[in-house]
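re: ur question from yesterday

yeah so i grabbed the chain u mentioned. its 121 aa long if i counted rite. heres the sequnce exactly as i have it in my notes:
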Amino acid sequence: MKQQIISDINKFKEEDIYSAMLYALYKLSNNKTYSTLSELIYILDKDNFLNLCSVLGGCTITIPTIEQLSNLTRSLLVYQYITVENKTFREACSLAGVTEEDKEVIKIYKMIVEILKNGAF
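ran it thru and got these structure tokens back, copy pasting raw so excuse formatting
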């Protein structure tokens, strides 16, 4: 019986062990901010996960959505096309794939212009 348990434990992947540890941390601490930590080990490898803990341990972070990253990227492209490549706003938007419906992208672009104008970046 003991040998069977040891054999079964050895079948766990390293990620599964870390995931179980992180889930236990969540349940033992009763801290809702730990609720999704056990999933991170399947996204990052062990070394990168431990590096993340080393650098950001104790911090609470919010991960941006893909849509937020896309909007920011397109806003920065519009900025680059205008300021570096001397394109018009309309040309820059076209090159960056920004349409009139992309109000959030245009809003972010305007914020970038304002921030950089004040040298606060």
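noticed a couple things. The chain is about 70% helix and 0% strand. also Residues 66-117 form one domain.
anyway ttyl
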